[in-house]
């Protein structure tokens, strides 16, 4: 097939990718958009297979078969609560693939300096994405735990790796002599860099990391497009890169922290300060599931604020059942979802959607907060930092300035939590001791089931 | 060569701007499917992987190409399917 025709087909694919992303602007159109994206991908791959340079169809067929089985099994068999780690894994293999493609070009002998430079970028970003995503996946899966205090030497090693990466990139660009060796060294350093970068990052910062690695997987593909002079890769990669970067910036804004502080901030961080012992703290009031049911029964408007604790306890179905029980009684239920609740952007929404909660009752905090004063009950389930009023009031506090759900302004706040322990940021939460707050201690799922049961029995 | 680089760079920048326009309009409720779906699209590197694996070249390059095809296909197939699975759960009562 003539190159011009191939490029035109790539243009059709790119257009379909644009429609795929555009579809995501509404849940109704998103399924169709995703299908269009997959058609675009199929078109791009099929037209590439017709390329005259391709002689080894056996190798391609074997690779495609293996990858299809892996992708199929992973995407269909895994539980919805494991989505964050799966998204991280897919980001990683995407980045790894880009680094390998650039590597094969280097092995064949990169024709120009520009192509060499493109390979270096693709190898660097791709390999960082691969190792960083694998570490993120292991941490999200709970297979890898690192205490948040990391020695300061970590930062020195990190800087050393970054310098080495710069050196190997320069060598790769300046001489074809020994290029494969330089590239291999660059890959090794980049893998170490990704590993060291993500290893100390704590769970609460994961939404930023996952979004950032998502951007990297796209940018690696875009760089590979420069290497192969292939428009399909450059366009699709840039679209994904832009998407990931926007999500990263949204997540950072939701935490009121710059990206650098998230990526490098964990190093040598001070241990969480205990609440001031000198201050007279009002003891938190506890409540039983039966009493929660009674409170809810007399409410007209309830706002539910889910957090990572809901995901850990897999309580989304119990929460959804409770909210259906409330709606049957004519009580208005809204969900207030903080952008960084959970471990990836939109994590809570996916879990609630799985539990058949309608998407039109899931709201952003900007929508919910103005109505908080008219809310009878704010029910916080496994969330902590995102409802901490200190973020509004205490300039000394590490999360000061972070937008929060103002549950303290509701008539009553019910906090379902396992204990009074501070959240990820290590800041004590005065909400728990506020006069209009009651604590429902215990496993989120068991608590919600108990409350729903108590509600039912009252009729 | 320099000219084609400039052309590519132009495409790159325009696509970034287009991406920015598109993504800014996406509601937070769909951020996870967006990430997963965008990630599937970044599996476009499969096109490069196919070229790398299928060309007649050294064994090492062939192995790299083969692995790239496996990785990229996992990314593409898994990414689109997972996105579909998630999106089909988003319903309005």
Rounded Rg of chain B? 17 Å
What is the average of the pLDDT values of chain B? 93
Overall structural class of chain A, as computed from helix and strand content, comes to: alpha/beta
Widest beta sheet: strand line-up of chain A: 1-7-6-5-2-3-4
Shape of chain B: flat
Write down the overall geometry of chain A: elongated
Structural class determined from secondary elements of chain B: mainly alpha
Q: From N to C, what is the helix and strand string of chain A?
A: HHHHHHHHHHEHEHHEHEHEHEEH
Element string of chain B (H = helix, E = strand) = HHHH
The helix content of chain A, as a percent range, equals: 55-70%
The parts of chain A where pLDDT drops under 50 for at least 5 residues are 267-278
| Beta-strand residue fraction of chain A | 5-15%
Mean of pLDDT of chain A? 91
Account of the 3D structure:
The complex is a heterodimer of chains A (459) and B (93). Chain A is of the alpha/beta class and 459 residues long. Chain A has 3 domains: 1-77; 81-270, no CATH class; 285-457, TPP-binding domain (Rossmann fold). Chain A has 17 helices and 7 strands. Chain A has a 7-stranded parallel sheet with strand order 1-7-6-5-2-3-4. The radius of gyration of chain A is 25 Å and the shape is elongated. Chain B is mainly α and 93 residues long. Chain B has a domain at 28-87. Helices cover 80% and strands 0% of the residues of chain B. The longest helix of chain B is centred in the last third of the chain and has 29 residues, at 59-87. The model of chain B has no long low-confidence stretch (mean pLDDT 93). Chains A and B meet through helix 1, helix 2, helix 3, helix 4 and helix 8 of A and helix 1, helix 2, helix 3 and helix 4 of B.
